[in-house]
Amino acid sequence: MSTEIESVLIENRVFQPFQNLVEGAAISGMQAYEALCDEARKSPDAFWDRLARENLVWQKPYTKVLDESEAPFYRWFGDGQLNVSANCLDKHLNTPTANKTALIFESDDGKVMTVTYKALHARVCEFANGLKALGHKTGERAIIYMPMSIEAVVAMQACARLGIIHSVVFGGFSSKSLQERAVDVGATLVITADEQVRGGKAIPLKAAVDEALAMGGCEAVRHVVVYKRTGGAVQWQEGRDVWMHDASANQPAECEPVALDAEHPLFILYTSGSTGKPKGVQHAAAGFLLWALLTVKWTFDSKDSDVFWCTADVGWVTGHTYITYGPLAAGLTQVVFEGIPTYPNVGRFWEMIQRHKVTVFYTAPTAIRSLTKAAESAPEYHPREYDLGSLRIIGSVGEPINPEAWMWYYTNVGRERCPVLDTWWQTETGGHMITPLPGATPLKPGSCTLPLPGIEAAVVDESGAEVGRGKGGFLAIKRPWPGMIRTIWNDPERFKKSYFPPELKGYYLAGDGAQRDTDGYFWIMGRIDDVINVSGHRLGTMEVESALVAHETVAEAAVVSRPDATTGEAIVAFVVLKQTLPAGEDADRIAKMLRDWVAKEIGPIAKPKDIRFGENLPKTRSGKIMRRLLRVVAKGETVTQDVSTLENPAILDQLSQAH
Ligand code: WTA
Predict the structure, then answer these.
(1) Range list of H helices, 564-621
(2) What is the uppermost EC class here (predicted)?
(3) What CATH number should be reported for the domain whose range is 531-655?
(4) Region for 481 from its dihedrals, namely left if φ exceeds 0, alpha if ψ lies in -120 to 50, beta otherwise
(5) Is 101 close to ligand 1, i.e. is its CB under 6 Å away?
(6) Cβ(524) to ligand 1 under 6 A?
(7) What ipTM, to 2 d.p.?
(8) pLDDT for 128-137, tens place per residue?
(9) Which end of the chain has the lower number of beta carbons within 10 A, N or C?
(10) Does 426 count as an annotated binding residue?
(11) pLDDT surpassing 90 at residue 658
(12) Any binding-site annotation on 400?
């Protein structure tokens, strides 16, 4: 990574905000930005109090803004009550927004369906009533394993309405991953679809749920509610399985939103950490909602006339904050897309921006990099071939965007008239943390620029002391904010240890390395723990290692990452088999088998790009695997470091052969 970081840091182009976006912006000009930052610094409680009153509809007002008595288990607006779904839907009913389009859904094969706020409210209420009729109640946990659809948004909103805590599992995860999450949350309800359709192919979802539940441990699941997407064949367990349309049928289009304590968990979303077991990141209703709404207003400077399109899946936090909750709370019209950017051709995104007159487009660097390549080989689908004149803001999320990709995006998609917003945040932060503001912040390609008002970001050393400008360190947040993670489900100790280590003075430790330049701009340098970011998807090295060693042929495995021109990082696995060292076709066959195995254990996104076999792994005399050497080998470079502490230096040559 080091050469890449250096090239990022010599980046010295600066792009001033466009005048048309400065005028009338929610945060207009750097002075307005700084004034808000000052307001937050001088009296954080008064700042958040003002925003929570101005932006949220409370069923019972709170009296205390922040309770720090059990820090780091912070409580926000603790004695207040509200309902998230009422804040996203009911709030708009007696306003002109009621008849506005809430969702423009485009299916994989290009069919378009729209739903107004009023109609969405009715569908959410009907489904919530259906869930109630099935006996599901506040506080239960539901696994949602669905394709991108209006129904997925309905399912999440219906849960929020009843106070059923949802845990969405990305449709690309395997039945094993699904089962582990269902067990950990103690799910009583699973909401899924018969199949999902992506790139012209139907992929079963219900069958994966059946498989997961058959693995055991999920006996608490009373119902599996199934959205009929394709009508493909499914197995049916009478009494347990219910069609989503049957659950909603004949239900009233009104359902009283449950008044929930501000700190009632809204959702649990699993994400990878440094150990083998993914963490169930728990978010609280009021704080998350406030941060989702505020960041939509601030970062995207949202306007009533916007057509907002976030291309993420609801299986990731980006889909939670910037599809299901934030844009609806802001009353925006948004595009929801079922398919993939390369089907039926690589112009799909640009064609959809043109068709739906998208004004704010928010996607991942991996998509931009792969579409850059695709546009070169298929010039007829180059963004220049489409009318993208509706765009006013383009954003990036999930991984570092290198200056080359940034410039391509800025020039070819934004046509040098839309700011590129490089938004840094995490599942744990609930919403944007460090990001440019379209009406204020001068941009530097490759930098996520400056923290939002109320966010006290810093780069610190191991003792929590801030390091000087231009020096690398740990990215930390010095004060709590409403959208922050509340705990790790079932594991408060791990929450404390992972995010608030005692040596860091109570700061939130993000797990990323960063530097600030002389203007105070932040430059993210990637993870400092054993997390790999492949195409914006977080995966733990230990998770992949555990999956590999679970295979009967594998004795030992070590996983590292390597920079990749398209996916940002790629997974390289070093494997010691129980049998003798394989060669030639035999090795290729076993490598393929192990890749498929990892796909089955975790999901296709976790498949190692390279598998290298060896008779052993490079270890110190005390038996510790030397990952730093493996990272060098993974990149195809020669090891020049001192290997004198290695028990078995010859192993490095053997491990250099890719499969
Ligand atoms: C990385 C996704 C650089 C980072 C919203 C972080 C980024 C992890 C950026 C969180 C960015 C996210 N620049 N790196 N703009 N945004 N990351 O939880 O390493 O899936 O810690 O949340 O992605 O990934 P997560």
Answers:
(1) 584-601
(2) ligase
(3) 3.30.300.30
(4) beta
(5) no
(6) yes
(7) 0.99
(8) 999 999 999 9
(9) N
(10) yes
(11) no
(12) yes
